[in-house]
Amino acid sequence: MPTETLSTRDRVLRAAADLLTKGGREAVSTRAVGAAAGVQAPTLYRLFGDKERLLAAVAHYGFEEYLASKVRLGRTDDPIGDLRRGWDLHVGFGLSRPAFYVLMYGDAHPGEPSPAARQAVSMLEQMITRIADAGRLKTSVDRAARMVQAAGVGLTLHLIATEPDERDPELSTATREAVLRAITTEEAMDADAPPGSGPSAEVASRAMALHAALEGKDVPLSAAERVLLAEWLNRLAR
């Protein structure tokens, strides 16, 4: 694709993003975007096809900014602490860019997610896999990732829909910690825990640690045996 076209596309996306930020989804009309970017309607249709595809491209544009901030977050020796920081970054991004966030998450529909959306989920799964590697995960990586994403997105959309002066400042932290308690286990079993709860949590975390350790590794098992082992480990984790 010629450099000029890439430059035009970037200019259009920047103009659309600015309109979205100032006026929400309804402000992003092809006429308004064309006027702001200094391009004619045929150029917009050639680049994006229609308004819905333009909005999808703007959502992707927003995802790229979010992913860049997640990459800058880095990692430490504390995978659960890293997940906490990732949660806070996610919520903070949504509250600082609400129009982008609603476009990215508030208009969900079944279908193939964008590459950026898939990368965001992959990064979350990598964070949770590190918790499993440390023997601290109580459920499967996939289920834990779905729980974190569902709770984080739901919370952020709720906060966006609430007037700033009416928001509970502790709600995000309380929700985050509730989810963490549901998917992770303490390093040491609680002596005051109800009978049977300690060993169950330990078995679940060990099962998921083994599942994560074997992922992608060359082990002397047939394909059918690997499927059966994965089923057993997931059952123990539940």
Automatic annotation (TrEMBL):
One of its GO terms (molecular function) is DNA-binding transcription factor activity. Residues 29-48 bind DNA. The keyword Repeat does not apply. Keywords: DNA-binding, Transcription, Transcription regulation. Residues 6-66 form the HTH tetR-type domain. Signal peptide: none annotated. This is TetR/AcrR family transcriptional regulator. It comes from Sphaerisporangium album.
